[in-house]
Amino acid sequence: MSELMLGGLLILALVFFVLLGTHIAVALTAIGFAGVWLMREDLQMAMRLLYLSAYNGVADYIFATIPLFVLMGLLVSIANVGKDTFDVAEALLRRIRGGLGVATVLANTVFAAVTGVSIASAAVFTRVAVPEMVRHGYRTGFAAGTVAGSSVLGMMIPPSLLLIIYGVLAEQSIGKLFIAGLIPGLLMALAFAVLIMVMARFSPSLVFDLQRQAGLARQRQLDRQLSGGEMLSKLTPIAVLVALVLGGLYTGFFTPTEAGGVGAFGAFVIALVRRRLGGGNLWRVLTETGSVSVGILILLVAAGFYSRMLSVAGVPMAISEVVQGAGLGPWGFLMLYVAILLALGMILDSSSILLIMTPIAVPIAADLGFNLIQFGIITVIAVEVGLLTPPFGISVFTVKSTLNDPKVSVESIFAGALPYVAVMLLVLVLIAVFPALALALT
């Protein structure tokens, strides 16, 4: 059996073990180890390669970005910055038809700039935005779908854990990836807002509970409005953090790791001033940071080892030759690649898809002439669609579990999130056709 054929069988074995429920890090490491051992018939070589992958993983300075940005996001969440952001957005947009939906998107956009995790955004705004939207006459399914849909902005607008993972696996500048994610993220947020306003204007029955809304007009008039000073005090903390993190990255004053450190310290100060670190909260934040970070780092070590096994087998080069020989060309390859990512998104989580596909696809994309920064943005958007599509749809299930309302079905949340999937695919096509949308600022 040739090394290439063995490599293909090992990829199929990896997908099989993941579908069986094997932890992705265990599956990647085991398949990588077995592949190197079988292809080189040298157990010591497989052991040395595993050691090098593990050492390089924990020794690389750039990996410090992961725990720092995770820590920043958790501190910001515990300090109620997300609720404050939504309160201000609600006050500014309540007079627009569909304004609370737009406020949810706007608050998620700002919150994404200091979290980097879609699931965190989904959990925070399910508690904050959904009850408020329902109170103002919105359909519960639409409200929950809007929270799930707009939560994906957490993985596009920097800092983003998925962009960090892609950058490490593809050996691309994380700083450039962060900056490249700005325009696509803001474009996606704008498209979400336009979608909500169009639906509220032309299909109000999909957005509002029309019978309940008629009886709530008087209640909306009695709601207290925030003063300008209150809005300023609520927005100042997150505005300062965004300016520190993104401003430092964009000007080149901070490296991504330094920006994570500054952002984490700023979030700690905000939580401290707001007295949100007592009652064991600080310890919970630190332990959760460690748990999330170690899980991601182990995955990256395992993916690095798996990538080396694929290189030994010559899988990326062989697939590249097949693609070019089949006459697919760059666009044919990109369409096939996105289709595979969308299909995997229905059964696997975002990190697992990146870990499996990036080592295979990036060398092929480079051979076909793609800019790997633009390719990374396309990859992350396609992977993020999986957060909203059944049967996996982890953002939808996060909203469902956080909402904890038996009257709201998972199916209704998936239906509410479906229009946002269409918008994401439209943005993906625009970035593929117009590379400047991702590369203009880099």
In a nutshell, what does this entry contain?
This protein is an all-alpha fold and 442 residues long.
Structure description:
The chain is mainly alpha-helical and 442 residues long. The protein has one domain (3-439). 79% of the residues lie in helices and 0% in strands. The protein has helices at 3-19, 24-40, 43-59, 65-78, 81-93, 99-112, 118-135, 140-151, 161-170, 174-180, 182-202, 204-207, 210-214, 217-222, 228-251, 256-273, 281-313, 315-325, 329-345, 350-367, 372-385, 394-403, 410-433, 436-439. The protein is globular. The relative contact order is 0.15.
**What radius of gyration results from the CA coordinates?**
22 Å
Q: What is the arithmetic mean of pLDDT?
A: 82
Order of helices and strands: HHHHHHHHHHHHHHHHHHHHHHHH
Q: Which structural class matches the secondary elements?
A: mainly alpha
Domain count: 1
Give me the number of helical elements: 24
Low-confidence stretches: none
Between the first and last Cα atoms, what is the distance in angstroms?
45 Å
The count of β-strands is 0
Helix content: over 70%
Q: Main traits of this protein?
A:
442 residues, mainly alpha, 24 helices, 0% strand
Outline the secondary-structure elements.
Elements: H1 3-19, H2 24-40, H3 43-59, H4 65-78, H5 81-93, H6 99-112, H7 118-135, H8 140-151, H9 161-170, H10 174-180, H11 182-202, H12 204-207, H13 210-214, H14 217-222, H15 228-251, H16 256-273, H17 281-313, H18 315-325, H19 329-345, H20 350-367, H21 372-385, H22 394-403, H23 410-433, H24 436-439
